[in-house]
Amino acid sequence: MEPLLTEIDHVAIAVHDLEAAIAWYAEVFGATVEHREIVESDGVAEALLRVADSYIQLLTPTRDDSPVAKYLANRGEGLHHVGYRVADCARALDAVKASGGRVIDESPRPGSRGTTVAFVHPKTSFGTLIELVQDPN
Ligand code: CO
Question: Which domains does the chain have, with CATH numbers?
Answer without folding.
Answer: 5-134 (3.10.180.10)
